[in-house]
Specification:
about 240 residues; two-stranded parallel ribbon; 4 strands; about 55% helix
Length: about 240
């Protein structure tokens, strides 16, 4: 492990110095049991050096430090995603691209005015971006493909939104929220759904323990892929 450089030859201080100072201040002000650093995975060695220095110098003070790294968003060419001008792509830019694509895909004959369509497209685009970021392994890089993000089928945010809308429509048609009663599994697809629901608590626990949102994202869509199309499945 390379040594952590705190002061440069010209007298300037490095990120290592400020990160170590932050550890000292946090212990003084907060006395945390654990500190999680959610930062680009490419900074892994830097944080290893900082945490190691904190332990060697006695400034860890019993606090657990963990780097929760994540991958980068790339273009279809596999390189870091940039604007047409070559600058860094901001979250606002990504949302604008997804919003434009969602608006393009929405039917204009659905009886909605332009303002309503724009609001609906915003809801869809935000879900698309969020779920795309959560469904991939946290450490993996992924390509920003707005065409696949905004689909209403497959492992996407809009697909989950569509599933919720269908479930709500069924409840509206039923006229009331179903009350307590016996659970009868009369179809293989119903059994698949029941097992998925029972697995939710352990899935959530695994997500938290591993700091891995993709586990929960996969659970949210995987049961549907394993079940055969049927009336029972459509009843959600």
């Amino acid at each position: 492990m390379p040594p952590l450089i705190l002061e440069k030859s010209d007298g300037g201080y490095t990120y290592g110095a400020t990160d170590l100072a932050t550890i000292i201040q946090r212990h003084s002000d907060l006395r945390p049991d654990a500190v999680l650093y959610v930062v680009d995975a490419r900074q892994a060695q830097h944080f290893q050096q900082v945490f190691r220095a904190a332990a060697i110098t006695g400034h860890a003070n019993g606090t657990t430090f963990q780097h929760i790294g994540f991958g980068t968003i790339n273009g279809k060419d596999g390189k870091p995603f940039k604007t047409r001008a070559g600058g860094v792509m901001r979250l606002e830019d990504l949302l604008d691209l997804a919003h434009a694509k969602a608006l393009e895909e929405l039917p204009y004959n659905a009886g909605l005015n332009l303002a309503e369509l724009s609001r609906l497209a915003e809801q869809i685009s935000v879900a698309a971006i969020k779920f795309q970021d959560l469904k991939n392994n946290r450490l993996s890089d992924y390509a920003f493909d707005v065409d696949s993000f905004t689909r209403f089928e497959g492992k996407t945010g809009p697909y989950l939104q569509y599933a919720v809308v269908r479930c709500n429509a069924i409840l509206v048609k039923a006229g009331a929220v179903p009350g307590p009663g016996a659970i009868v599994l009369g179809n293989p697809s119903e059994r698949v759904l029941a097992l998925a629901l029972l697995a939710f608590p352990e899935t959530l626990e695994a997500t938290v323990k591993r700091f891995e949102p993709s586990v929960l994202a996969d659970h949210a869509t995987a049961w549907r892929r394993r079940s055969a199309p049927s009336t029972a499945t459509r009843r959600c």
